[in-house]
Amino acid sequence: MARILVTNDDGVSAEGLLRLQEVLADIDGTEVIVVAPDREQSATSHSLTLHRPLRLKEVSAGRYSVDGTPTDCVSLAVFWLMKGSPPDLIVSGINSGLNLGDDVTYSGTVSATFEGALLGIPSVAFSQDISAEFSFERAAGFARLLVRSLLAHPLPEGLLLNVNLPAGQLGPVRLTRLGSRVYRQSVIEKTDPRGRRYFWIAGTPEWRHEEGTDHAAVAAGEISVTPLHLDLTDYERLNDPSGLNRWLLALEPEPSER
Fold this sequence. Notes:
Largest sheet: 9 strands, mixed
CATH class: Alpha Beta
Structural class: alpha/beta
CATH topology: Stationary-phase Survival Protein Sure Homolog, Chain: A
Number of domains: 1
Mean pLDDT: 90
Low-confidence stretches: none
Helix content: 25-40%
CATH superfamily: Survival protein SurE-like phosphatase/nucleotidase
Radius of gyration: 21 Å
C-alpha cells in the first residue's frame, strides 16, 4: 500500500487541503495521512522551529495538526508519526493562491516539498488561482490524476514538482520554468491605540511577460508544472569563472602576507 503525506501552509482546516485529502483517499491502494499547521503559515518559507517544543494533535482519524511550520509538519510526520514506514509521496496544498516564479522561495507550501526532496521523498505542491470562477474541486481532480501517475512512475531523487492551476476551466498542461517579477514592496507605518508604532509589509508584484514561464502559462489559462531542485549552484559561472576572477583575485594574499 502506498502511503501519502498531505500538508500545506494554509492550516489543517483549509478547504484546499480537505478536498485534496478526500480525492487522494479515493485512490485504490493508498493510505493518506494529513499533518498540517494548526493555523495559517503562509510565507514561512523553509523555516524550522528549534527554540520551543512542538505539539502534535490528532484532529480526526488520520488528520493531525502541528503548532509549527509546514517544514515542521513534514519532519514530525517522517521522523515520528510515520517512522519505520515513511511516505512514498508528499503532496502539499492545495494552496489558496498561486506560487509562481520567485515566490517559491517564500512559500510554505512549496517549502514542504523542498523538505521532502531533502529527505529523498518524491514531492509535489499544488496551488490554485483564487480569482473569479476558481474551483478547488477542479484542482483536486487534476491533483488526483497527477498523483496516480507519480505513484506509478516515481520522480527521480531530488526532483520536486510545483503545480499552479488557473481559475476557470483548466487548459492544457505545460512544463514551465520559473517566471520573474519586480516586487513593488512597501512598508506601511501605523500607530496603535497606545501610541506605539507598528508596520505592515505590503506590495504588488509586476510580472515580466516571458514565454515558457509558469506565470505565462497560468495567465493563458493553462496548468503550469515546474520541475524544481534544491541545488542553487550557478553552474554557468562555476564552469566559466572568468567573470568572478576580479573578486577572487582580490582575495589572494600579497606575497609578503603569505
